[in-house]
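Observation: inputs received (chain + nicotinamide-adenine-dinucleotide).
Thought: call the complex predictor directly.
Action: predict_structure
Action Input:
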Amino acid sequence: MISEAELLAAVPNQLFIGGRWVESSSGRRLDVHDPATGAVIKSIADANEADASRAMDAAANAQAEWGRTAPRSRSDLLRSAFDLLHERAEEFALLMTLEMGKPLDASRGEVVYGGEFLRWFSEEAVRVAGRYGSNQEGTGRMLVTQLPVGPCYLITPWNFPLAMATRKVAPALAAGCTVILKPAALTPLTTLYFAKLLGEVGLPVGVLNVLTTSASADVSAPIIADPRLRKLSFTGSTAVGRQLLAQAAPSVLRTSMELGGNAPFLVFEDADLDRAVDAAMIAKFRNIGQACTAANRFIVHESVAEQFAQRVTEKVQAFRVGRGTEAGVDIGPLINEDAVLKVESLVDDAVARGASVLTGGARIAGAGTFYEPTVVTEVAAGSDILATEIFGPVLSISTFSDEADAVAKANDTDFGLVSYAFTQDLARAQRLVESLQTGMLGLNVGVVSNAAAPFGGVKQSGLGREGGLEGIREYLDTKYVLTPNPFA
Ligand code: NAD
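Observation:
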């Protein structure tokens, strides 16, 4: 097995532009930290506007040829990337744990999940269909075809360093689009290592370009304003998504937005409580609570709330906290100091408004940015924790009295990414499918993500879908052609 030092040395430390690893014209370096220790693990190039312009040139120059490659070639390339990723699964897993903090097993899970987008879209690349037929009047023949949108700018967050990249890059490449990929400054190493892998499997020059930068807004603005850019796909916070939508408006750029969530987790009085408790652990604590799909508000029927709280508390007390590289660790550090301060303030506010802490409730002293796995119950309406994405290992419980109350509380948010509901009543489940304002629903399950599924939200959780049959359409334009009836 590769050592941490060998792995970090193998990760490129420059920008990837036009098929070459190059220094930034800024001359600046960007330090990447291990959140479990606070130590700098690598310094990499820190791109500026001039680099953005070089990346835009490279993506634009490569577009025409890449868009005309045989779909089977694009498919084979993505499939080779999938295979090589799996050969290097342990390396990618360790790298994610080092720069992001999640336990090694969770990183391994992300390699599997993230890799599936390469395999899924290698299969979709050769299935982009069109149609041919008569118009209604019979006077003409209608041809509908789908063509690559063109150069895309892809911006990803830090919480799933591999999967958020593959979920965009794979469909874009499958569709025949060239891309500029900008990872989060906190976790850029996985993206650089992934770009290296794509180079090794033969991705042509300029098809993928990577900009790592501490100046995201400065680097992104000229790319978004460039008339050669045809598509912006962003995963991150709703606040930044709103700004990017405004920047995309002048050129009416096509956009996909995977934004924040505030997932309700409803437990009805008829739920299978064993199942609900197990699912709660995954829905809440996967990725140390730092997932857009993390259950944010546990809303439990008042008749089972106490029992549910007690049972989840027992499980949370058994969690082992530590550096993600250590065996048996369930909960790693939060990404940085700001994340700890945010979680602290949300828990403090809930307690000030009457909530009880059943376990945890404080940061962990010492190196790294750790917060105790926590359960708070009797959270009062109006508490900040109900309106804000916690993004940490805090399970917050409030109650409802009947189904109408549950649905009203679940929908009482500007977000609508995912919801979870636990009930054994089929008619109720069917009502929930229709009445919950959500892009995705986990019905008696605690994880919904899957490469074959359309991932995305309603309301302020975003626009568009990633994965599934829908995922590749985000990177295709529909063109319709009319010809005369050849027999007329
Ligand atoms: P963020 O919005 O701070 O950053 C996301 C990305 O945008 C990063 O690459 C960042 O460098 C970049 N960025 C920040 N400001 C920018 C600007 N002005 N112009 C251009 N780029 C800019 O979000 P984050 O803290 O990295 O990620 C957490 C958020 O992402 C949470 O809200 C979470 O719910 C959301 N998220 C959503 C999904 C989804 O699929 N819906 C998936 C994962 C994370």
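Thought: report the result.
Final Answer: Residues 16 and 155 are 15 Å apart (CA to CA). The two ends are 71 Å apart (CA to CA).
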